[in-house]
Amino acid sequence: MQHGKIAVPRRRDEALAYIIDRLVKTGTSPSYDEIGRELGVSKPRARELVDQLIADGVLEKTPGAMRGLRVRDVAHAREMAGEFARRLGWIVAAPLGQLQPPFPQVQLPMLPPFKHLPDAE
Questions:
Q1: Which residues contact 54 (CB under 8 A, 6 or more apart)?
Q2: pLDDT tens digit sequence for 32-60
Q3: How many of the other CB atoms lie within 10 Å of CB of 38?
Q4: Which of 10, 14, 65, 102 is the most buried (most CB within 10 A)?
Q5: Among 5, 4, 7, 1, CA closest to 85
Q6: Which structural domain, as residue segments, surrounds residue 20?
C-alpha cells in the first residue's frame, strides 16, 4: 500500500517479520498477545494475521501447542521479508548462492617446519 511516497508495509508482513525475529532470538514463537502488542493491534487481529500466513502456507501451527508456530516455507518467507525491507526503503542484497572453496583445483604449498623459534621476549 502506498501513501504518497512513503511505502507502508502490510500488517501480515510485519507479523511474519516479528515471528521470524522472535523464533531466531528465543527459539520459541510469540503468543497472539505478544504479536498484537508488537504490532499495535488486538489479539483477535493478531490471530487473523497468523491465520492468513498459515493459509498462505508460510507458517504452520502445531496442533494443541500454545507457541507452536513454525516457518514452513523458508524461501517464500525470505522473499516476503525482502519485499517488506524494500518497501521500508532498505537495499536488499541478492543471495550469495553456493559458496565455493577459494582454490579447489590447487593444493596449497607446504611450509617447511621451523628449526628455531624466537624467544617470546
A1: 60, 61
A2: 999 999 999 999 999 999 999 999 888 99
A3: 17
A4: 14
A5: 7
A6: 2-87
Phi, psi for 53 (deg, rounded to 5): -65, -35
Residue with cell 577459494: 102
**First-to-last C-alpha distance (Å) of the chain:** 66
State the CATH number of the domain containing residue 18.
1.10.10.10
Q: Name the residue with cell 501451527.
A: 61
Rounded to two decimals, the pTM is 0.60
Report the amino acid identity of residue 84.
F
* Per-residue pLDDT tens digits for 55-111: 988 899 888 888 889 888 777 777 777 777 777 788 877 666 655 566 556 666 677
The total of structural domains in the chain comes to 1
